[in-house]
């Protein structure tokens, strides 16, 4: 199953691409090419027959604004004999003749042809930005546009037209480089994804033992093989050497599984009787537990029974189906009863939630409080509400935080008023205030004495009865 062995989708993709390319080419003759644009006027009789062909481009070019046409016309002129010239470099070049029409009509025709050619370049520029462009398409388009822009029989800014084409050539080369790199990356990714499929198959083959579920493992191998085929059909083709090596590994893993499975089949008949006896015992235990109301413990036991059932092996499809129906019936009886009990509890919790919502309305009506007396009355009312709250019971788990938070908010508002009242009557605060006042008075007294002593020193230095004055000042303290 190397890549060349399954190529339907890849060939289909190439065919599709080849089919769509001519469609693009088929649409190109709608735009006049230089080869189809005669540099000289035909004979009057022939021109009369072909007159509608000259007027058709003007009618088809309704998408161009008059301003665009006028801008293009500025780069050309029409001689008196109907010869149309265009500015090309430092000089001008004859692009054709339109003798039986007015100069305005002739100039407008070639200006619209210029706009048609520029529209092709713009279309190609947009195509380069898309993700579905092909390298071959880029080469073919550049080749066609190169011929059409070399000596175009149009009237317009030829320098800008050629500059745009040169820029598009560079963009096309860059796009081709990007496409090449993208293809390399796609091939590398395809190899990585194909390798992942192989590694899964090898892991399955290496995990085979006496406890293997052969049917499940066979399904997994079948799924991996389908993934291989789908990947091969829907992704880029990888190198033959890599494809062959990966297929050899995948095939070896499948062969290993098939050999081990055949060996298991040989021992299956002997194991079926043992499996049947084991499952009969499991069914008896399950039927004994089906009416239990010890939900947690019995759920754990049913889980253990299921594990034992899975490990018991196969007893034959017919016996297994019949025994499974019995075991499943016992399990359903228990789990349906457990669910009914849970539904009843859930309904009760919703009723409790409604009751607590009513209490919250009462509690939130107690606030705000503004005085210590109001806070005391609110605290007493809140205590009664909280006592009733605790007696209601559980509510749905996802609602606990919300309603508890609302009740706590009421409690915090009342407590804030209580704390403020306590701070105003706190004996320790009063004591700290008295101590501060005593310390302040003592410091002020010391400051007065210091001032008097300084005054005494000043009096002694200035002469006079300083001692008497100091005594007088001290007696004033």
How are the SSEs ordered, and which strands pair?
Blueprint lengths: L7 H20 L16 H17 L5 H8 L2 E3 L4 E6 L2 E7 L5 H27 L5 H16 L7 H49 L7 H21 L5 H50 L5 H17 L5 H48 L7 H21 L4 H28 L2 H36 L3 H11 L1
Antiparallel strand pairs: 1-2, 2-3
In short:
With 477 residues, this protein is mainly α. It has helices at 8-27, 44-60, 66-73, 103-129, 135-150, 158-206, 214-234, 240-289, 295-311, 317-364, 372-392, 397-424, 427-462, 466-476, and strands at residues 76-78, 83-88, 91-97.
Describe this protein's structure:
- There is one protein chain.
- The chain is mainly alpha-helical.
- Helix content is 77%, strand content 3%.
- The chain is built from 14 helices and three strands.
- The chain has helices spanning 8-27, 44-60, 66-73, 103-129, 135-150, 158-206, 214-234, 240-289, 295-311, 317-364, 372-392, 397-424, 427-462, 466-476, and strands at 76-78, 83-88, 91-97.
- A three-stranded antiparallel beta sheet has the order 1-2-3, with helices on one face.
- Helix 2 (44-60) crosses helix 4 (103-129), helix 8 (240-289) packs across helix 9 (295-311) and helix 10 (317-364) runs parallel beside helix 12 (397-424).
- It is flat and about 115 Å long.
- The protein starts with 7 loop residues before the first helix and ends with a helix.
- 16% of the residues are buried.
């Amino acid at each position: 199953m190397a890549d060349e062995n399954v190529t339907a989708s890849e060939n289909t993709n190439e065919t599709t691409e080849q089919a769509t390319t001519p469609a693009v080419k088929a649409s190109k003759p709608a735009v006049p090419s230089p080869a189809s644009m005669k540099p000289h006027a035909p004979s009057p009789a022939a021109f009369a027959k072909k007159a509608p062909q000259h007027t058709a481009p003007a009618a088809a070019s309704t998408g161009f604004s008059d301003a665009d046409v006028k801008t293009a016309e500025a780069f050309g002129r029409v001689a008196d004999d109907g010869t149309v010239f265009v500015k090309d470099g430092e000089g001008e070049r004859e692009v054709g003749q339109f003798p039986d029409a007015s100069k305005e009509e002739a100039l407008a025709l070639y200006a619209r042809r210029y706009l048609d050619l520029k529209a092709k370049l713009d279309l190609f520029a947009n195509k380069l930005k898309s993700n579905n462009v092909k390298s071959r398409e880029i080469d073919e388009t550049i080749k066609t546009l190169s011929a059409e822009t070399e000596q175009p029989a149009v009237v317009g800014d030829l320098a800008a037209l050629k500059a745009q084409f040169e820029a598009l050539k560079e963009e096309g080369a860059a796009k081709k480089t990007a496409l090449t790199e993208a293809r390399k990356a796609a091939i590398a990714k395809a190899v990585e994804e194909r390798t992942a499929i192989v590694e899964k198959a090898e892991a399955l083959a290496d995990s085979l033992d006496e406890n293997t579920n052969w049917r499940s493992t066979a399904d997994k191998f079948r799924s991996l093989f389908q993934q291989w085929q789908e990947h091969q059909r829907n992704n880029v083709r990888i190198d033959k050497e890599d494809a062959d090596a990966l297929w050899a590994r995948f095939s070896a893993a499948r062969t290993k599984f098939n050999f081990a499975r055949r060996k298991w089949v040989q021992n299956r008949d002997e194991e079926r009787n043992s499996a049947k006896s084991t499952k009969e015992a499991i069914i008896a235990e399950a039927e004994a537990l089906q009416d239990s109301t010890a939900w947690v413990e019995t759920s754990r036991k049913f889980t253990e029974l299921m594990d034992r059932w899975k490990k018991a092996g196969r007893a034959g499809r017919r016996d297994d189906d019949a025994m499974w129906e019995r075991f499943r019936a016992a399990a359903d009886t228990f789990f349906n009863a457990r669910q009914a009990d849970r539904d009843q509890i859930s309904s009760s919790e919703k009723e409790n939630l409604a009751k607590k919502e009513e209490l919250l309305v009462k509690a939130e009506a107690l606030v705000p409080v503004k005085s210590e007396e109001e806070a005391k009355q609110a605290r007493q009312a809140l205590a009664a509400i909280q006592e009733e709250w605790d007696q209601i019971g559980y509510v749905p788990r996802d609602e606990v935080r919300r309603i508890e938070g609302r009740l706590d908010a009421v409690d915090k508002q009342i407590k804030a008023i209580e704390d403020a009242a306590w701070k105003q009557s706190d004996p320790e605060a009063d004591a700290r205030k008295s101590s501060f006042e005593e310390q302040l008075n003592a410091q002020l007294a010391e400051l007065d004495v210091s001032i008097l002593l300084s005054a005494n020193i000043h009096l002694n230095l200035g002469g006079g009865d300083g001692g008497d004055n100091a005594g007088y000042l001290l007696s004033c303290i």
